[in-house]
Specification:
By secondary structure, this protein is α/β, with parallel strands linked by helices. Helix content is 36%, strand content 13%. The protein has 4 domains: 116 residues, Rossmann fold, CATH 3.40.50; 153 residues, P-loop containing nucleotide triphosphate hydrolases (Rossmann fold), CATH 3.40.50.300; 79 residues; 228 residues, Leucine-rich repeat, LRR (right-handed beta-alpha superhelix) (Alpha-Beta Horseshoe). Strand 9 and strand 10 form a beta hairpin. 34% of the residues are buried.
Length: 667
């Protein structure tokens, strides 16, 4: 029995006479106990017997059980234990032998068992994994609840960014991986989903669990069907890290019935409701480190090799207070203060104390403020453009665009835990949050050509001519942009979509080469400056679902404009006058607006092909000048409940025949 307790894998060979042996049955009970209590891997071999004979005590197994019952009439409980063990073991997936080549059969078993015994490389946890063991044991305990060998459990790991969700989940994964047929850890689900889509995640999951094959994933629906079909008979350990959307769960782990008996699915997220609404069985809240653990972790980074300078205990206590037990904050501050004398500590803590809050974001921001100008520029380049790229590529691009060598700056950033070298690529923590709550501006270099920064902080450029061509800061928290667009002669593309706090668009005449302006989903936007509608180079202007937009320029004469989209601007009651011919505008979308009329000057849209007026419920009629639009091919009046009449003209006659469909074609 001791040998069973010390084993990692138990192979049970169910032969025709197996159940007649009391010793075999006692060993089986012990094996199944170790499976439950110690996660022993149990693999049955059904040798010339069918699994149902073992599971249901049929044929020879039924006769053996009857014999045992007659022999131990005074101790019927022992026979019940044997039957339970047979039923449980007979339900496990294994191998069924029925007069085939024994040597080949055994070779297949050896191959599969050997793969289970091969040492796997554990996931990297942390340089100093302080204070995680107790939380890992709590998570493992949760994963063993309701354990009967057959259930599938989904466990959520919940907490704010920087508290150590991934670290604890990696340690849990390492401790349990060998007990499963297949296992995989999908990192950065949110980021990967946003960048490349769910199909890429599904492909990655399938390729890691299954042997290389020719599975084609061409859609999310196809991917989820394949995952369910291929995994439902496998005991799987799966981790989905940093999930932030219900569709990610639905497409990657739709439910327990997607996976084989005994599978465990761990999901880390900052959103507790997302976990509970998906039917996660248990949600574990990650706790901050206690005072002793926090001090230990901080000391490991601030005073490596026990080379502790004369730093007052009061200063260390202030650092621990600011960090609030968050491992990420302790690592960043410890690395930042490492090797510095007391005056530098005093200065850093003084700056931190003036911050309106004391979250991890502020701690990381303090680390950023401790950088020299060159290191700041490299940091921003990586954060905005190069996160996840290989170090050689990043150095090549930065060195060719800056007047300094970036090698030392990258080393400084790594030393201060702002970025990490992960297998030759530069990674960083969720730095969009580092500054998102900050009221202080982040200064950008004037020679920056392109900036994509979703959820960006308050941005400022230095004085002088800027080389920026594209500015994409969608989902950011800007309210006003007055005075920010001076000396932007090269800027062509602006994307402010989903900037839900943006109230107005200022004078953009100082951006002479602007070609595209996207303001979709700016829910607080109430007005747009007249310069936007008179811009000579502007080709595309989109303001979809700007729900509060009431003031659009009264005159439209952007002579290069090709498409204007105001769909869903519910409060817009009046559309612009068009005093001059517009040779390039081909698409005009005013659907779901509150306009009461089109101006007679609409006839100056001489090239327009598509006009959408769907759901303009206050629009009663069209001006007669609309019939002069010789290039108009499509006119949508669907849902215009107050629309009463067309004025009859020779050209409109074919349109009248289709008016009841509310989609009107002419040609």
């Amino acid at each position: 029995m001791t040998a069973i307790e010390e084993s990692s894998i138990a192979i049970i060979i169910f032969s025709e006479d197996y159940a007649s042996s009391r010793w075999c049955l006692e060993e089986l009970v012990k094996i199944m106990e170790c499976k439950t209590q110690k996660n022993l891997i149990v693999l049955p071999v059904f040798y010339k017997v069918e699994p149902r004979e073992v599971r249901r005590a049929m044929k020879g197994y039924g006769r053996a059980m009857a014999m045992h019952e007659s022999n131990v009439r005074k101790d019927t409980e022992i026979v019940k234990r044997w039957k339970k063990a047979l039923s449980d073991a007979g339900s496990l997936s294994g191998w069924y032998y029925n007069n085939e080549d024994e040597a080949e059969f055994i070779r297949g078993i050896v191959t599969q068992v050997s793969s289970r015994l091969e040492p796997t490389t554990p996931l990297y946890i942390a340089k100093y994994p302080v204070g995680i063991n107790s939380q890992v044991q709590e998570v493992i305990s949760l994963s063993q609840k309701e354990w009967d060998g057959d259930d599938v459990l989904m466990i959520g790991i919940w907490g704010p960014g920087g508290i150590g969700k991934m670290t604890i989940t990696k340690a849990t994964y390492n401790a349990n991986e060998r007990h499963f047929q297949k296992s995989t850890f999908l990192e950065q689900v949110r980021e990967t989903s946003n960048k490349y889509g769910l199909v890429e995640l599904q492909k990655g999951l399938l390729s890691q669990i299954l042997s290389p094959g020719h599975l084609t994933v061409y859609s999310e629906g196809r991917g989820s069907s394949l995952i369910r079909e291929k995994f439902r008979h496998k005991k799987i350990l799966l981790v989905l890290d940093d999930v932030d959307d219900w569709r990610q769960l639905d497409m990657l782990a739709g439910g327990g019935d997607w996976f084989g008996k005994g599978s465990r699915i761990f999901v880390t997220s900052r959103d507790k409701h997302l976990l509970t609404s998906h039917g996660i069985n248990h949600v574990y809240e990650v706790k901050p480190l206690d005072q002793g653990e926090a001090l230990d972790l901080f000391n490991q980074h601030a005073f490596p090799h026990c080379k502790k300078p004369e730093i007052k205990k009061d200063l260390i206590d202030r650092v621990l207070h600011y960090a609030s037990g968050f491992p990420l904050a302790l690592v960043v501050l410890g690395s930042f203060l490492c090797g510095k004398e007391e005056p530098a500590w005093e200065s850093a803590l003084h700056n931190l104390s003036k911050s309106p809050d004391q979250t991890i974001n502020k701690v990381l921001k303090t680390s950023f403020e401790g950088l020299a100008n060159n290191a700041r520029e490299v940091f921003l380049d990586i954060a905005c453009l190069f996160k996840g790229n290989r170090i050689e590529y990043i150095k090549k691009v930065i060195d060719n665009s800056r007047d300094f060598d970036s090698t030392i700056e990258i080393e400084i950033l790594i030393e201060r835990s702002l970025i990490r070298n992960v297998y030759g690529t530069l990674q960083m923590h969720d730095l969009k949050e580092v500054h998102s709550s900050s009221q202080d501006p982040v200064y950008l270099p004037n020679n920056l050509r392109w900036l994509e920064w979703s959820n960006a902080p308050f941005l400022e450029f230095r004085s002088g001519r800027k080389k920026l061509v594209g500015l994409d800061i969608q989902k950011s928290h800007i309210r006003q942009v007055d005075g920010k667009f001076k000396n932007f002669e090269c800027l062509k593309y602006i994307n402010f979509s989903q900037c839900k706090s943006l109230v107005s668009v200022p004078d953009l005449s100082s951006i002479p080469n602007l070609e595209s302006l996207n303001l979709d989903g700016c829910k607080s936007l109430v007005e747009v400056h007249q310069s936007v509608a008179c811009h000579d180079k502007l080709k595309f202007l989109s303001l979809q679902f700007c729900f509060n937009l009431g003031n659009f320029p009264h005159t439209l004469k952007a002579k290069s404009l090709q498409a204007l989209d105001l769909f869903g601007c519910f409060k817009l009651e009046k559309f612009s006058d068009i005093p001059e011919k517009m040779e390039h505008l081909e698409e005009l979308d005013l659907g779901w607006t509150a306009i009461k009329e089109l101006p007679a000057s609409v006839e100056n849209l001489v090239s327009v092909k598509i006009i959408n007026l769907r759901k303009c419920k206050r629009l009663p009629t069209l001006p007669s000048s609309v019939y002069k639009l010789q290039n108009l091919k499509y006119l949508n009046l669907g849902g215009c409940s107050n629309f009463v009449m067309f004025q009859r003209t020779r050209r409109i006659q074919p349109i009248l025949m289709a008016i009841w469909d509310f989609e009107i074609y002419s040609g």
